Each structure stands twice: as C-alpha cells, then as structure tokens.
Amino acid sequence: MGDILTPKVKSIVVYPIKSCRGISVLQAPVTPTGFISFSFLHCYATLFPSFGFYPYVILYRSTGFRWDRQWMIVNEKGRMYTQRVEPKLALVEIELPSEAFAEVWEPSSNSCMVIRAPGMGPLKVSLSRPRAMVDDVSVWEWSGSALDEGAQAAEWFSRYIGKTSRLVRFDSASQTRSTDPDYARGYKTMFSDQFPFLLISKGSLDAVNRHLKDQIPIDRFRANIVVEGCKPFSEDLWKEIKINKLTFGSVKLCSRCKMTTINQQTAVANPELTATLQGFRSDKILLPNKKPKGQVYMGQNLVWKDCYGGGNSIVVRLGDPVSVLRQVSSTAEAAT
Fold first, then answer.
1. Which of 6, 25, 93, 329 has the fewest beta carbons closer than 10 A?
2. What dihedral angle (degrees, nearest 10) is formed by the CA atoms of 58, 62, 63, 67?
C-alpha cells in the first residue's frame, strides 16, 4: 500500500498592486467584508410575519488576502495596465511593513508601502486611506470609483511606464465588485482578474517543467497559495478544501493568458510555455464536453466559503495542512 500524501501550504504570496511583483509571506489574513445576512432576515420574516421590524446579522466573506490586488495602475481613461501590455510591470517590487500581515494590525499615519523599479527612486505610498477619488476606473467588465494615490505616484508610474498613469486603490467602503455569478454567486473581489484566491500545487509545476526545455519557477503563475504533498494536478478535482480552519470552495480552473510567458525577473516573454501547455492542458483535452476556445489551464480559483462572525482566526500560514473535503472524478465534471 503506497504512502498517503498529506498536502500542506508550501508558500503564500500577496500581490498588493495588480500585475506587479508579489510578496512572499509566512502568513496572510483573509480580508473579511461585511454584508447583511438576508437569508437570515427571510427566515425570521417567515417565522414572525406580524413583527414590524426584523433583526439582521452582519456576516463576513472575503475579497482575498489582506492587501492583495488592493491597488492598480490605470491609464488616462482609467483602464487597467497589466503585464499583458506593459511587461515591465513584472520588475516593480513592493514592500509592506512586516507587521502588515499580522492577524490584527492597523496602519499608523507613518505606515507606508514602498515601491521600487529599475532606474527609479523608491516611491512611498501611505497606507492611510486617501481622501481623493477618481471616477470611471475599470478592470475587465467592472467599472466604478477608486481612491486616488495622488500626483507623486502618478508621476512616478508615468515616468516608469512612459505613458500617462495613475495609482488607484480599491475603496471597499463605497464600491463592490462581484465575482462571476455563473461560478461564484454572492462573492466579492477587488482588482484581481476574476476571483479572490488562486491555488496551484508544486507537483503541477514540476509536471509542467518536465515538458519544458527551460525550467520555470512558480512565480509565472502568480498563485496566492502553493501547496505541496499532492499528486500533479490534484487541485483540478478539488471542489472544497479546508486550510487550517478555513473552508475554501473551488469555483473554476484558471485559464492562462500571455502573462505566464513573461519571465518575472527579466520581463521578457517566451511563448514556449503556452505552446507546451496546449499539448496536455488545453480545454480540448481537459473539457471534452465543451466547445474548445483554445485556452490552457493551470491552477484552481477559490473563494472563502465561511461566513465570518468574529472570534476565530482567519489566517493562512506556511505549513498549514490542506484537507480535501470534496472532490470530483474528472476535470470535465469539475467544469460543471
């Protein structure tokens, strides 16, 4: 009888600015966002129809790890910049105070994010909430208002990119960005592409590297959570997992774009990866019951399923065990 594999968290990465470099951390708290439990209201109204008022419960779901994709660089029309068009964003390094990833921490007036890039002096951005707002900011299908990080940040990124730019911050106090309801109805995210979390296994990376002439590191796939101790592509079949005491639901295999071809250390693209993935990770192979669209897949998008009412730890830590609560038998089934 073979050894039973026990998955665990190998690395955690938070990406404060969309499409810039991530920060590898020992632990990361999820960001709880409050909402009124209307299902609770409905139940109460059904039981007590004669009452003229109904109590409500404030519960919480997560928009991702704290600080993750909270900022974004936009052009003069408010549209997002990403490595797909500006690959040099791969070279933009982000530094946050080490205590920023503690479970309970609030920034002071002196707390700041430090941004560095080749040929540029360091840019300091206060972690305090900006007062100015900018309208008509867009990321994919969503548009709304965002907090404006000011003229100094705008000038810094405009000089680095060579085009008019601004640095904006998601304003969770006034804005809501919902995830795709076809896959995760009722969940929220900030400036991530689609969903709050992305998980990949080291075994999957190793399997891909066996097909490549030039080996690649895990940063090509920009995952938040990397797990080890499971077979390659096991995560394809996971539908519900528990990391420590937090329950996550798998909502959609992650289709990969041009960004995975960009070397995160040099900002130079190499199409070998996409061509290789087409051979064994394409939608034609993994999703035979669906019309092929020429996509390739690597990693699993997640949402945090728990409703947080306070009191329990909401931190994912390096080395945390990963328990598979529910899985399916094929990628075709996982896509339904």
1. 329
2. 110
Do 222 and 259 contact (CB within 8 A), yes or no?
yes
What CA–CA distance (Å, rounded) separates 316 from 244? 7
Q: d(Cα 113, Cα 126) in Å, to the nearest integer?
A: 6
CB 59 within 8 A of CB 309: yes
- Dihedrals φ, ψ of 107, to 5°? -65, 145
Residue corresponding to tokens 């035979």: 288
Question: Alpha-carbon distance 75 to 54, whole Å?
Answer: 46
Alpha-carbon dihedral sign for residues 141, 191, 79, 223: negative
| pLDDT tens-place string over residues 98-135 | 999 998 899 999 999 999 999 999 999 999 988 899 99
Q: Which two tokens stand for residue 106?
A: 């609030």
**pTM of this prediction?**
0.90
- Which long-range contacts does 24-27 make (Cβ < 8 Å, 24+ apart)? 25/101, 26/101, 26/317, 26/318, 27/101, 27/103, 27/315, 27/316, 27/317, 27/318
Burial track 272-290 (b if 16+ CB lie within 10 A, e otherwise): ebbebbeeebbbeebbeee
